[in-house]
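Lecture notes, structural biology module. Today: joint structure prediction for complexes of two components.
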Amino acid sequence: MNAPTRRVDAHDKVTGTVRYGADLTSPNLAHAVFAVSTVGKGRVVNIDTAAAEAVPGVLMVLTRVDASELGSPGFVMGGGYGFQSLQPLLDDRIAYRGQPIALVVADTLIAATEAANLVRADYEVEPIAVGLDAEAAETLVQQEAIPLPFLADIVMGDADAAFAESPVRIEATYDLPQQHQVPMELIGGVVGWRGETLVVHEGTQNAGALRGGLARQLGLDPARIEIISPYTGGGFGQKNSLQPHVGPLALAARRLGRPIKFVMPRTQTFHQASFRPASRHRVRLGADETGRLLAAVHEVDQQTSRHDLFPAIYTEITSRLYGIEHFRGRQRLIRTDVQTPGFMRAPFEHPAAFAFESAVDEVAYALGQDPVALRLANDADVDPVTGQPFSSRHLAECLRRGADMFGWAGRTPEPGSMRGADGTQVGWGVASGAYPASVAPAVARLSAAADGKVTVGVDGHEMGQGIRTAIVRLVSEDLSIAAEDVIVYVGDTRVAPQHLTAGSWGTATALQAVHAALRDLRKRLDVADSDPVDVEAAVAATGQAAVDVEATTVAPGQPPEIIEQSRAGLVAFAGPVYPGFTAFSFIAHFAEVRIEPTTRRIRVPRVVSVVDCGRVASPVTAVSQVRGAVVWGIGGALRERSEVDPRYGGFANATMEEYPIPVNADIGEVEVGFVDEPDPLLNPVGVKGLGEVSMVGVAAAIANAVFHATGRRHRRLPIRIEDVL
Amino acid sequence: MRPFSYTAPATVAEAVDVLAASGPGTKILAGGTTLYDLMKLDIEAPTAVVDVHRLTELAAIDTTGPGEFSFGAAARMADVADDPVLRRDFPALAESLAKAASQQLRNMATVGGNLLQRTRCGYFRGGPAFPCNKREPGSGCAAFGGLDRGHAIFGGSDTCVATYPGDWAVALRAFDAVVDVIGPRGERTVAIADLHVEPGDTPQREHTLAGDELIVRIRVPVTSAGRGSTYHKIRDRESYAFALVSVAAGVAFDDQGAVEDCRIALGGVATLPWRCPAAEMVLTGERLTEESALRAGEAAFAGARPGAHNVFKIELGVRTVADALRIAGERAVR
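The predicted structure, tokenised, for the full assembly:
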């Protein structure tokens, strides 16, 4: 009843009160800039820093760090902390264009920038392979290269035989390009020392990994490291681990005895941080004449770097979107000369759903069936991979409700049959999506004070998704106290381990810990488990100034000691397969495209998306999450591609001007619906994940709509004007 | 960033004196939206910067006519784009400004400075990692055999196919604008057609102004083809993007309804603002129909020399010309 309906930090954000990492300043702040490699691969044979050092105000030019001072952070997906294992400045190897070769620190940003431009290097240049088809790229079968159970190929029945015997067969290859996250907040922050304690202010999704990784790299006691990241200005997976600039900054700050501010220039964020790797999907779908899907084969080739194996997990959802008896997945990794790619919103699920949901559309047309009806008829009753039930699955309801909201019944099925008066081709497309509902261990600390305020410190990072709002709502609803009386600390290693917030597990993870702590708090306050609480009176009755509780929660089936893995800054989440059930979020997207008759610009005047994310923890921020994801989907379908010149490597359109994220004028109406049924098994709060699933299937719905408009199937993203001329 | 001297003369006369005394590394600063950008990229490294952006005598906008409209070189793109008379009598000119850049950039950028905006070729802007004859004469051109989707299909040479990125100059080219410049040798008037030059063997040379000359104003003869005009810009997103193909088109009809005056200029496809006299001839004296407009488009794109990834600009361009002529025709007084 007291729960806020607005985003709790909206006012502070709009008025600039919120302080992001790089907003901090102090009188003795120094500024850092990296000089970077201008070749795509090779060795630095000579580096000349004389001109750089001569720039007035330059304090330090660091070209090499001894391994005894700074180790590798390890790869976040290989038991480490870094977005990649490669730590620049440790040796003379250049693995990719844009790799840092020198760190310049100066009194001013201007001096540091000027000096960085004056660092000159001579290289021994080696040939590069940067694309999936490059001759020198190396192909690895994932399950052989990384023999871990969750990365093994998913195989059910005999998909190849069942496909061969299927009366209706679709076989097609789909290509998706490299893309970059391009969060508004640039990577960076302020790194400094308070006595023997290293203090890092930086926007991140994973303060725990920054602490654990820096402890490993610098040989420090983690207790002597504080990561403070109350707000992140967009992460989208690019800020999900320790970036290689922080370690050198910590060393430089200690040598200089000054804190250092670093803000990575936009172009460098395309080269010094993760990105969505290129992937290619060969999909085979077999069906009978009634439209029952009999067999599916989904084979994926995904780009990775030479130095790390970024795993491919595309078939986790495609094996479960439908109740298909025979399924075979195969995932391969293609080693190329790039920085290690990584997680970009719906990292595997967006490409996988584009490929698979396009193929399902092709089946519907081959059979002359309605694409919504075909999907409904093939819905899964149980998890086809494990045979166990889903914790909740309302995909059919998403499809039905979405079709209703969209007016799907008014669609004429024939491609090219819907046209505007001026000859504009109109197309309506649908696609489903799913995303694993994972949960991570978390610690929540609650402090109820004599003034009636409740302070919450919990695992979680606020990167715009609205986790603070969700936490405030939970506490204020539970205790029936005003939203203003709930104070939230997230992204801060001083209050909780700060496990990675990603993969759409953030809200479920934080809320179940806060929920558990609320139960303890009520006991300690000696109040009933559900009635409104007069916090001020209840605290007074205890005779103490404040009542503090701490709760630790883990994912279903996880042992309690998993929290130690999180405390070490390592990834420790579980899901989507839990003892006794499997948990996914689901979504259905409906898109309308309009294609001009002459110059063939593709417009998306409206999208309807209906989500099953369990209970909606915060309606205002939830709608915003879905709208933002649909915008990403439109960008992914029609706009975004990180351009690569195979002769040079790196990324050619590495600026906001040239990398075509959508602008407001590209976006029409986005209508959002929620099933809003609490998940009964995953956690007591009933929430699953939302941020990622919201993007899964948008691109397929748009591509399917383009097919409906034109009769032409597009299997390569983005679909640009030259593709539809 | 390199050290440079900075001067902000208080008058045009003083600016002329400062420029006369300046060396070859001097750059004129107006809105700063391109110069600062290129300085940060270390592509421009002026030794002296002469700031004219506060010279109010250069900021006048005069659309009272009747013979011509005049725009001071330091008038802001946003202010000119919003001029109600210009929007009515010369929609192509107003639209070419409104569809350029972002509102924030248009608020700063000037109509004089915009004429000399430098190419967006990624190899030019990418710095010394890439060969570029424009940036480093004789070093080669990475666009050949590279990512040339955005590159020119008209006016290129063996040394350079970098696209002229502006919109405003394309519209001005269609309407025979002239540019008044002042320098130590006095004032002179340069036809917009003579302002930019093809790359040829000297792609580093982009225009015909001397280093000590300052653009004072731009003048455009008022014509009924201006009333029936549009700037039609096709790009990868609906705003804040450079043109894949853009067309400035204007038409005026005679008493019988035939095209009396036709103007067609292209942007996004050439190394400089590209006028299409042959396409204009196709329509002159003819009725404007879908068919004749397409023929004009085909004439406009005859002789295009595409690279590996920009062949589509020919088909897209033909259609864009035809659409632009239709829009212009609907606006023309009959």
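Point to remember: DSSP finds 19 helices and 27 strands in chain A.
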